Amino acid sequence: MKKTLLIALGGNALIRKGQAGSVAEQFENLKMPVRQIARLSERYKIIITHGNGPQVGNLLLQQECCDAVPKLPLEILVAQTQGQIGYMIESTLDSTFMELGINGEKYFISLITYVVVDENDPAFKTPLKPIGPVYTEEQAKTVPYPTRKTVKGYRRVVVSPDPVTVVEKREIRRLIDMDFIVICCGGGGIPVIREGRGFHGVDAVIDKDLVSAKLAEEVAADIFIIATDVPGAVLNYGKPGEKILRSATPDQAAGYLKEGHFPPGTMKPKVEAAMRFVRTCGKRAVISSIGDIEKAVEGERGTEIMCKG
Ligand code: ADP
Ligand code: MG
Fold first, then answer.
1. 208 flagged as catalytic
2. Structural domain tally of the chain?
3. 182 domain-assigned
4. Cα–Cα distance between 189 and 125 in angstroms, integer?
């Protein structure tokens, strides 16, 4: 019986820092993580989740540039990025399996995923997460949503509530049981609020690391890998005495978090996601570089969060 591996790909798996983010660049960048995932799929059931920061930012900018057609709400843009990134990952998987000569039946599928959030989540009181284009102070006054001054300039801000549950968890479980590689929860998932027996979308962005931890719990994943552009969680990052944290228990990680080693918006949600998964499931989570996914699975690289014993 294959174990289940959930791999969360950071935005940099598609667009590296400093790149314009053309489609050709995104396809090229995907080759390295996807090659490793293709090899791992021989031994593990695989779920891939991914970020969408740069892609959804570009779609937002396209909204701002055109008045000829109706503007689309954020939830629709998140759905679009799940489609575009899912397609890029799938087609890269397809060509990689051929290149590696991995025979046998390989199935993969991208799933549009909604994620329930709680309308009473205190996060709804204060939109803090900056997204999309940078505006001047004048422009910021004319756009129809809340903005905030950031280091880059004025930007739209949205709320970032906690993920409560992934609506398609049962479908995802069935698909991995049939050995499908499932690409899902892109961009944190489409945030929805329950309304009776239905749902409606909200203007919010769910953190992709936290939703990945929730999904890993809900599908009973065995190993949770968070792949990003640094070798792991670093103590004293960018300061004297900087050192990669190779392993920690959830309690030790919580201590480092409290001491301020991991800033909000980047490393904090990854450490938090790893801690939540390990605390609820008693299994192993690793934060590693996208180049080291296979080694991270073996426990040879990255920051490993697990209970000792
Ligand atoms: P992703 O797109 O993978 O979610 P993020 O940019 O959100 O990536 O987070 C990774 C970034 O976190 C790194 O590029 C690094 O600059 C930053 N970072 C901040 N603090 C730390 C830390 N203590 N250890 C490692 N990286 C850190
Ligand atoms: Mg991030």
1. yes
2. 2
3. yes
4. 20
pLDDT digits (tens, 9 = 90+) for 76-114: 999 999 999 999 999 999 999 999 998 777 899 999 999
Q: Structure tokens of 248?
A: 């920690």
In a domain, 91, yes or no: yes
Residues 302 and 276 grouped into a single domain: yes
11 is catalytic: yes
Where does residue 114 fall: left (phi above 0), alpha (psi -120 to 50 degrees), or beta otherwise?
beta
> Which residues fall within 8 angstroms of residue 118, CB to CB, at 6 or more apart?
161, 162, 164, 193
pTM equals: 0.96
Q: Whose CA is nearest to atom 7 of ligand 1?
A: 266
